[in-house]
Amino acid sequence: MALLGFLILFPLVVAGVLLAVRDNRARNVVVAVSALVVGVASVWLVVSYLSAPWISFDFHSPVVDYACTIVSVLVAAAILFFGIRYKNVPACVLAVVQVVGSLAFEFAFAHSLPVEQGLYLDSLSLLMAFIIGVVGSGICVYALGYMEDFQAHEPEGAKDRRPTFFALMFAFLSAMFLIVFSNNMVWLFTGWEVTTVCSFLLIGYTRTEEAVRNAFRQIIMNLIGGIAFLVALYACAIQLGTLSLVEFLQIGIMNPALVALPVTALALAGLTKAAQMPFHTWLLGAMVAPTPTSALLHSSTMVKAGVFLLVKLSPIMYAGAFASQGGLLAAMPSIMTVLVGGITFALCSFMAISQSNAKRVLAYSTIANLGLIVACAGVGTPEAVWAAAFLILFHAIAKSLLFLCVGTAEHHIGSRDIEDMDLLFERMPRLSRFMMLGILCMFIAPFGMLVAKWATLVSFAEMGQVMLIIVLAFGSAATFMFWAKWLGKLSGIAAARENVEHDVHTSEWTAVMVMAVLVILCCAGLPVISWFAVEPYVYSVYGMLGQDISFSNLWISSVLSIAVIVVLFAGLGRTKARKVDIYLAGVSRDNGERTFRNSLSGTSTASARNWYLEDVFGERRIAPIGTACCSAVIIVALAAAAVSVPGLF
Amino acid sequence: MSLLSVLIGTLAFAVLAPVLGCLLAGLDRKVSARMQGRVGPPLLQPYYDVRKLIEKDNVSVNSAEGAYVTCALVFTLIAGGIFFSGGNLLMSVFVVTLSGLFFIVAAYSTRSPYAEIGAMRETLQVMAYEPMVLLMAVTFFMASGTFDVAGAFALGAPAVVVAWPAFLGFLFVLTIKLRKSPFDLSYSHHAHQEIVKGITTEMSGRTLAKVEVMHWCENILFLGWTALFFIWGSPVSALVAVLVAVLVYFLEIWIDNNFARVKWQALLKSAWVVALVAGGVNIAALAYAPYLM
Amino acid sequence: MTYATKSPWVIHYDASSCNGCDIEVLAALCPGYDVERFGIVNTGNPKHADIFLVTGSVNEQNIKVVQEIYNQMVEPKVVVACGICACSGGIFHDCYNVIGGVDQAIPVDVYAPGCAVRPEAIIDAVVEALGILEEKSKALQAQRKGA
Prior knowledge:
The complex is a heterotrimer of chains A (649), B (293) and C (147).
Chain A: H1 2-20, H2 24-48, E1 55-57, H3 62-85, H4 89-110, E2 119-121, H5 123-153, H6 162-181, H7 185-203, H8 209-240, H9 245-254, H10 260-273, H11 281-285, H12 291-300, H13 303-321, H14 327-353, H15 358-379, H16 382-413, H17 424-427, H18 429-443, H19 448-463, H20 466-491, H21 506-524, H22 526-542, H23 551-571, E3 578-579, E4 588-590, E5 595-597, E6 603-605, H24 614-617, H25 619-644
Antiparallel strand pairs in A: 1-2, 4-5, 5-6
Helix pairs in contact in A: 1-2, 1-6, 2-5, 3-4, 3-7, 4-8, 5-6, 5-12, 5-16, 5-21, 5-22, 6-7, 7-8, 8-10, 9-13, 10-13, 10-14, 10-25, 12-16, 13-14, 13-15, 13-16, 14-15, 14-20, 14-25, 15-16, 15-20, 16-18, 16-19, 16-21, 16-22, 18-20, 18-21, 19-20
Chain B: H1 3-35, H2 45-55, E1 59-60, H3 65-84, H4 89-110, H5 113-144, H6 160-177, H7 205-228, H8 236-258, H9 264-292
Helix pairs in contact in B: 1-3, 1-7, 1-8, 2-7, 3-4, 3-7, 4-5, 5-6, 5-9, 6-7, 6-9, 7-8
Chain C: E1 9-14, H1 20-29, E2 41-42, E3 51-55, E4 58-59, H2 63-72, E5 78-82, H3 84-88, E6 98-100, E7 110-112, H4 119-146
Parallel strand pairs in C: 1-2, 1-3, 3-5, 5-7
Antiparallel strand pairs in C: 4-6
């Protein structure tokens, strides 16, 4: 338990230290050392509790309760402060609602309902801790080099606010650890709100008009989720008389109809944080932030908090969908999450096709994959939860690898447009191979993400979830399109190009290497991870194993992915064949540059852009459909849940 | 299914599929020629073509293309091995997709404008047929209760009895997968129907030979998927399945010779509508039938 | 025996023909003559072709195009000049920008004269070319073994 406390508090202390450290070199040392410490500590935690069932820790302290309340109030105050400063009325109103709500809650219930066992861990928490501790702190290390370049690109005399930046990154990690280890739902809520405000400040880091606007969009949407969380807390306290997560889950599984309101409200909170439609715009807007922020938000933190909560709730949704009493009402949270997740997965995959900005493609792919995790959580069978856990793991590592690669590429080629990544295979040979590895891991068999999607498909098929099967089939096809064309762009080889990757910072290489090694290890060790980390969780929750994919198939995937990785890193570039020019039809001027003699004896350049199918998959066509459908689903579900509460109407 | 059976299956497939596929391709050209009132080439013409390509000088536009195409061929063989050793149907589908991806990346890596157009069209084709192929696999699962191909031999009646809409939908996208007109957007076997030679523009000699062999093996594998719907727990079923596969291939040749190539919009739209209607209706029927009865 | 003669794939280029010979080349490829009986396929891609059929004379504007197509064909390969213009420049030989026959640009293996050249003559020339292709193919294999 000391380790849990250490993981929660240590990043917080580091954040405080970083706020004070102004010297670049000292900061580099502090960040590198503490990232290492957090990484090692989380790995140690995972190893020492490997395949543990649910373990609760007796820990309750009024001091922590008060600290949490103070933090919640401070968070709301900070939002209020910025809301007033930038004259944003909705943010102010929501912040006021929240601060009043949480203070009232504190004085009315919190002390009458003590939670004896404040902290817990199970295999899912361990998986999350591993992701936060290793991937998250890896991103912090990466940020060292990246932010140095970033600061160099800033106009002369711009204020160096890197201390704040790094402090926020570490505070973020601390809050995430709090979320995954808290059994006390009030503490969980505090962590939840801290991540919201940290990402608000990180998105608005550059303080440009666009950044501020997007930061406020983020805060408004997440405050809605926060208030939904608060509603759930009230409902738990009033209806169920407990604030312990484990007790709440137990009551919920026994009687899903009884907890319909809190589960729906918590699911809504999860959906906002996981950037599901109609809340997806905040994650797209978050792209204005420096790349390490995007990497952190997308892979290991923030959005993962949303799906973590939903996966925790999935046994209740599963129970609700098959409840003998309560009927439709009990099934409502499940229906809501499944529909929203499924629609988001398909539509965001479609929209990703129409994007040429690499970070926007990554953002849409994140939202789509989260949609799939959400849908799995909504289905809630042991098989679906198995798949969801793997989706979380592989998405975190592959996506962070991709973000880090895109960030580094952007600083060296001056663009984040996929079309400009033409010939990256030669200009940045190492980086482009890592990027290709990340892309492969995201969408193609036999790599992790696809194995997880495969499991998802099997679990949907077993459950007869017709809509989800269709959504998955079409969404996966779209996924193939947008990843394959990006991969193709990266792979182009032409006459020797200047290599521009010599001056990539060591810290960036370190982080990218860590992610790449993680991707390789996880793909190769897939059956082992299933055995030691994911199955124990499924077993501890459902009392049975749900494995859709037999072990031998997992081993085949593992062997095949090793083969592909070997080809990617060692098999390319060796041939005895004589090199010849490409065919340009007519007379080439400079074959490597694809220039040829045109009909007026002048010089023309042949160029080929990828297809973006704007008319078919454009945002303008698709986004309104998704927003309308998902909003309607959420409103209906909330209304049904609210009506169900006796005495409310 | 274990790694060993997949390995044995892959080796067997690697030996048998090229032979059968080559004969099938020869038959294809012969039958096409007869449909056009010609005599046509000898049955072994595809074999001669490949042998000639191997004899050609060993040249390449870059150092990676050959490796990518080799990967594409190897993964096609593995997919065939998985399928014909009675393994998981979905895995076979996914591994073929991986092979397709390597083929696409090989074309992209050349950076030839014509090859890039072909690669982009191939990517679009994959997107067009993938939903129906996945739905076909799911329908097979719902009809037979397992994704394992070997499970078909335990069925009382062939899967097609309850899965005929999905089977028909699959036949529709099979035209894309077999690279037959009207859906041969990325790479056509017909002379001068192509911008230069689509996705294979920069491939020559041995690399092109590998592409041809891969295409033979793919055809055998896809016909295997087709035949799977006619397998049940009776020795006669193997005969029926082979007969159906032959008939289906004849149908594809007939389509190939009678339809002109369509634009990509028509390809995508028709393939997706067919997948949605045929696959969706079939899956819904199978999923909800127990509740209705 | 080599397989080069069993599967000769051709590419056709119109240098500066009046189109008479072009039509005859295409006629030879039509079902009426059915040259696919001999494995002949018309490809649009020099990288796939073994036999280069050129019609028309070579001029200042297209000489480099002819050379580039020839250079991009993979060994072993043969060139057939189809029609009198391709053989020697024909009636255009003293035009101001005409250089002459195809052999002014690239090595020609078989000459098929005629104005326009008849399909039978083209097929005959291709059969002639197959013999040369066979020799070149053998030479290449010998060189490969020796190397």
